[in-house]
Amino acid sequence: MAAIVFLHAFGSSGRAWQPQILQLGDRHRALAPDLPGHGATPGPFSLERAVASVRELIQDEPEPVHLVAISGSVIVALLTALAEPDRVAGLILSGGTARGRRGDAVQRVMMRLMPEGMIVNILKGMYSGGKAEHLDQAVQDLRRAGKATVLTGLAELGRLDLSDRLGEIKAPTLVLNGAKDKANLSHAEEIAGGIAGATLRVVPEAGHIWNLEQPDLFTRTVVEFVG
């Protein structure tokens, strides 16, 4: 049975995939590691260290794995697929980008000037999927990761451009984007257009971290694609 590896957003942790892990049960081997600087994994965070940690994880699997990534970790999944094409059986990429976005620099400057508590208050609603039952966990994860980790992730993402390398990815790919997550729709279209055979699906009534907003639909989407 090929493993499904779930990669969390920058500032979150593997706990954000708990609904999917629980729903998959014994049907699939599901893994949700904490990236460096997040959850229980020591920092500091860098894209290089994040990709290295995922590559190390999947080397131990007897079969190629499916990578499921959301938000900033989409870039980690793309870099892993480029570095380990024979170890990646499929990609499910939601709400991510293959390169820095217009306005990223302004966003980083604003966040750098904000106290960490203000950043947590701004992001906690999105990182909890708008669900009260996930709010405390989102706050804990954001505080544990800290302002520096989130800023580092955004800064490294802003300097990277994989748009010219998307054509190198051969793994079957499903690109997802919440209909309410309008800021990332053009980036989802770019990723889907750049990877041969990729499918783009816009999810009605879904926002950015929609695996927590609509956990049943997200899990079902993963299972259907993997199957």
From TrEMBL:
EC number assigned by the record: 3.1.1.24
Enzyme class (EC, first level): hydrolase
Source species, domain of life: Bacteria
InterPro entries reported in the protein's UniProt record: AB_hydrolase_1 (IPR000073), AB_hydrolase_fold (IPR029058), AB_hydrolase_sf (IPR050266)
A Pfam family recorded for this sequence: Abhydrolase_6
Domain AB hydrolase-1 residues, every copy: 4-218
UniProt keywords, alphabetically: Hydrolase
Listed GO MF terms: 3-oxoadipate enol-lactonase activity
Family matches, as PANTHER family: MONOACYLGLYCEROL LIPASE (PTHR43798), MONOACYLGLYCEROL LIPASE ABHD6 (PTHR43798:SF5)
Protein name: 3-oxoadipate enol-lactonase
Naturally occurring in which organism (per UniProt): Nonomuraea africana
